């Protein structure tokens, strides 16, 4: 359970960093107005409508991320006998993704645009879900390395439930700030303008996080770390986990 808990924290943090990435954060007001079909002024007056559409949008991309998590876990289960090597190779891949985010080198296939361009949003609430699915299926280059690192780590998990929990945590980290931004878009814009110049640090933090996770996977110290955290957990709390 402790291993899962550590993975959940890492995945949730990765989702939050994906939301804060320079490719996503500046576009949030545009996404909000697109999925709601309202202007920014109307969104401020119709917070309930914005909330409903925001929840449906995040439900759409969460379905895609959960499906990716299930697929990654299934692949890992098929190669269970080689899981130690999967962890090592995956660790190297995650470190490379971290270095890419830090700007150590360029990978052109990650820099290519992969988002679906929907000129006209399908009408109604179902249309909002479909837009969320399109967003999740065609993530931008900024989200790709972070999500790729989480999926690689998920592939080392033997149980389908663990894979779903990890990608559920990632989706939650991306979803919560989006919903908050949708119902308080004017406040979001003000905060964004204030901290816009510091967005570069998001990629650096995300890159450092991926490198740490990759090294832990490569050296098998993820297990050692979770064992240490287990020792710090009060026995009364461990008995409930």
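^ structure tokens above, recovered residues below v
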């Amino acid at each position: 359970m402790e291993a899962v808990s550590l993975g959940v924290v890492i995945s949730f943090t990765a989702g939050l960093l994906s939301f804060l990435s320079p490719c996503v954060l500046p576009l949030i007001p545009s996404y909000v107005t697109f999925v709601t079909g309202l202007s920014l002024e109307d969104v401020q007056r119709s917070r309930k409508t914005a909330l409903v559409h925001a929840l449906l949008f995040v439900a759409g991309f969460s379905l895609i991320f959960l499906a990716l998590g299930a697929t990654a876990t299934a692949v890992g289960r098929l190669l269970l006998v080689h899981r130690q090597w999967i962890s090592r190779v995956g660790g190297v891949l995650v470190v490379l993704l971290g270095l890419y985010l830090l700007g150590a080198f360029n990978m052109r296939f990650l820099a290519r645009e992969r988002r679906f361009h929907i000129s006209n949003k399908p009408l109604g609430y179902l249309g909002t879900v479909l837009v969320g699915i399109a967003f999740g299926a065609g993530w931008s280059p900024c989200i790709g390395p972070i999500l790729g690192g989480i999926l690689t780590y998920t592939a080392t998990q033997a149980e389908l439930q663990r894979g779903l929990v990890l990608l559920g945590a990632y989706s939650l980290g991306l979803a919560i700030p989006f919903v908050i931004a949708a119902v308080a878009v004017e406040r979001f814009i003000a905060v964004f303008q204030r901290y816009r110049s510091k967005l570069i640090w998001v990629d650096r933090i995300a890159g450092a996080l991926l490198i740490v996770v990759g090294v832990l996977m490569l050296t098998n110290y993820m297990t050692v770390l979770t064992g240490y955290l287990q020792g710090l957990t009060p026995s009364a709390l461990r008995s409930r986990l």
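The longest helix spans residues 47-78.
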